[in-house]
Amino acid sequence: MRKIIEPCGFHCIKVNHLGVRFGEQVVLEDVNLHIHCGTLNAIIGKNGAGKSTLIRAMLDDIAHTGEIEFKDTKDGRMAKLKIGYVPQSINIEKNTPVSVFDLIASYESKFPVFLAKRKKTYEKVKKALSVFDAEELIDKQVCNLSGGELQRVLLSMAIMDEPNLLLLDEPVSGIDQNGMELFFKTMDYLKRHYDLAIILISHDLDYVAKYADKVILLDSTVIRQGTVREVYDSPEFAKTFAAQNLENWMGEGKEND
Prior knowledge:
There is one protein chain. By secondary structure, this protein is an alpha/beta fold. It has eight helices and ten strands. The termini are far apart.
């Protein structure tokens, strides 16, 4: 059954002619996207297709051409786009004496967190964690969190400022199947209860098929986009992942030689 993408609610996000070049190497070229709020948009593609580069460009972390347009359709005016971001991983050394509260409060509060735990800030952090059933982690050391726990903490940080757009760069890397299911159900909850759009990079095509409203197939540029059925049944999809499977097979063969 074909999924129906609802029209934009209050916000609408467009990526217009975005390009990224590193020296003479063209990584992304003429990328155009129209992202609806209240939808989960999955970016898929072969290794080296430019997926993470696209996220970094949207965050303005790297130089790029083109523009990202955010329109508030309640009154038709241009407004500043607020973005939440969850990276693929963060490096935290063992025995680092930083609690979940310290991590989030240092990002959120203007006051040095080592001076005192401000009750107002503590309750705000706890409320954000509760969205992901993680409030019991608030006093736990970050270095002792499991992969799934850390993921929930990072998601809590990402939505604290009520972003219009949530960018997720392979956030389920290293998570088991139970964690994957919980993650995608949480994404489904977010898109239905918060006025935001979600862009997710994922290699798990089964979960993308189950939960995504829109799929973007990337290979330096957008080579196909639409519903799951429209993209998965396309010749571009078959060609991309036939080539990817061949590369993976050849790589495994070399390792076994």
